[in-house]
């Protein structure tokens, strides 16, 4: 899997788009997170749109359970907002939903899953 990271100045957010080539494993997702956080800090921007509509996860339940602890708030504190776009029919939908629940359980409440890009952008803009 590969991805692009862009800062969208008009929307004041960092957008990360995966290309969907190959399954995403733990190491790739960690690097994607580091790349996104680096861009966020470079632009003093705690808002992220992560487009995983083409992503297929290759993670076990224990890896998903542990992933939120790896990044926590990335140094953004309560200002952090992450909108993750997924397809409703994604074969990884249950894994993304489990990840979002685990984030909430750990007190990371600035992360939400979306199927609609406009709704994700509206939620980010409201921050």
Topology:
Elements: E1 3-8, E2 13-18, E3 23-24, H1 26-42, E4 47-51, E5 56-57, H2 61-71, E6 81-85, H3 93-105, E7 111-114, H4 117-125
Parallel strand pairs: 2-4, 3-5, 4-6, 6-7
Antiparallel strand pairs: 1-2
Helix pairs in contact: 1-2, 2-3
Verbal overview:
- Helix 1 packs parallel to helix 2 (61-71).
- This protein is globular.
- 39% of the residues lie in helices and 24% in strands.
- 29% of the residues are buried.
- The chain has one domain (3-125): Transcription Regulator spoIIAA.
- With 127 residues, the chain is an alpha/beta fold.
- The longest helix has 17 residues, at 26-42.
- The protein has a five-stranded mixed beta sheet with strand order 1-2-4-6-7, with helices on both faces. It has a two-stranded parallel sheet with strand order 3-5.
- It starts with a strand and ends with a helix.
What is the residue-mean pLDDT, rounded to a whole number? Answer: 85
What is the strand content? 15-25%
Instruction: List how many beta strands DSSP finds.
Output: 7
Poorly predicted segments? none
Mind telling me the C-alpha Rg? 13 Å
Helix content: 25-40%
Number of contiguous helices: 4
